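Board notes (copied after class):
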Amino acid sequence: MHTIDFIVIGLYMLALVVIGLIAKSKAGASANSYFLGNRKMSWWMLGSSGMASNLDVSGTLIIVAFIYAIGIQGLFIEIRGGVVLIMAFLMVFMGKWNRRAQVMTVAEWMKLRFGSGPQGNMARLLSAIANIAFAVATITYFAQGAGIFLGSILDIDPRLASVMMIFVASIYTVASGLYGVIYTDVFQGFLIFFAIIYVCILAFVQFDLPEEFLVSVPLLDGTFQSLSVSRESWSQVMPSWSMDLPGEYSRYNLFGIAVLFYLFKSTIEGSGGTGGYQIQRYFAAKSDREAGLLSLFWIGLMAFRWPFVVAIAILGINIGLGGSVIANPEEVLPIVIMNELPIFITGLLVAGLIAAAMSTFDSVVNAGAAYWVKDIYHRFLNRRATEKQLVFQSRMSSALLIVVGLLLTFAFRNLNDIWAWITMGLGAGLIIPQIIRWYWWRFNGYGFAFGTLAGMVLAIGQRLIAPDIPEYMSFIFIAGGTFIMCITVTLLTSPTESKVLAKFYKTTRPFGFWGPVRSLFRRDDIDRINSENRRDILAVCIAVPWQIILFLTPMSFMTKQWDNFFILSGVLIVLSIGLYYTWFRHLSAIDRRKQEEPVPVKHV
């Protein structure tokens, strides 16, 4: 890079710190201010922040690697996590269900679902521990990806680069909480958006894919192998049933089965909700309507990520046409930036991708610290803590999460290795208790607690004992063991109190197996809830393919495969119309939660 590029990056870093420190006074008022912004954030700010948080540099490195090596079909591999299909479920019903609880964390939500007695406390404690563990693993993933990216750019050790980047992000994250996260994310979002548009225009206008070209894939021994592919196969939008890839990517050769499995996993995950920084935006939303609007805006902004990664992959392929194929797919992004972009634009794009890394990092840290402060320290260690003490704990726990996450970067081989374990290992252990809690009235806090504990133990054990087993085997083993523990412990212990279940149901109004609880309410209330639930189920069946097609359409545009583009555009229009009639037009103009809550008519 040139001097002007470093000046751009330096000014950007300085701006982030200034914005964060300006927001410090607002965040320091209370824990609610620090973690939820007093629930006064606009939906478009929460949606913009969510998009910036999802557009992390680690994920971008991996997605670019898949698109470069496999083509457009690489998107279907990232259904496991990178496509963030859970957003379709959050948009339609899961976001408003969580918002209605009016809590700060998923762990605090356990009090509403299981009560404040022993089973509720146990569920809350295990949920907090599990979400903190997940936050640490995610910080590790982002730290390693950020180090690889910035280290390649600056030609320094990746771990030193990671520490440098995270040090700057830590200043405003620790100081200003969610206010700093949201304000800096919105600022970073504009920078990211500009970088995306510029790179897409550059790739589209100046480069065409040749009929045949070379790409490269990693082998199991750490070396790489070049492969010859055609433009038609690389641009294909329909997933193949099978592939013939060597080395590390051979795990995806049963491609059709892998895609179906990832869809199944995403459906389970979406139906169960999520924790961390994603759900924190919904806890901070003003109303059910704004929860829906922020989701729609979030997904719409995320759609720009996919033509961007295609553009980077095309530029990487273009470098290979000169006779020097990029060997490591995970290095395509930094190599393209350093070789294909002009002065000043290089600095802007690097700053934009640093922004992406910091946006995700600060969101995870802020959400992870909330579990310690609200669900462990305040609930079990110091119930009389003052707001000043809670804010102090917020900042100290944020700093500690950062340090532990950095240290764990030494335990993984590469980004895909970390991401696969987070999504298919540790994530599998948390999904099952999360989904059962919404849909089965008999599930109790003991079942949730022991199921979550079993999931964490199985995930860590798999990582230590059998780290190289296929992803689907890992998921089945961990999720299956967790499910058995959840059901067994639940049936061996007493149900949650009826009055707790009735309060949860009237507040949240979920669908599922709630017969004994539903019988406590008036028939007209149940009919109204059923009508809303049927509409949501239909809408989410449209929203999932709508989101996938929304991402595929601009990707096809970038490859100039016009037949595919116009077919996808037509399908997208039809799905959008269906989504409008089943979901969007039913968004309430005001928050009517209190007026619409059903009232139990039977003694509980």
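Comment from the instructor: The radius of gyration is 24 Å. Residues 3-596 form a domain with the Sodium/glucose cotransporter fold (CATH 1.20.1730.10).
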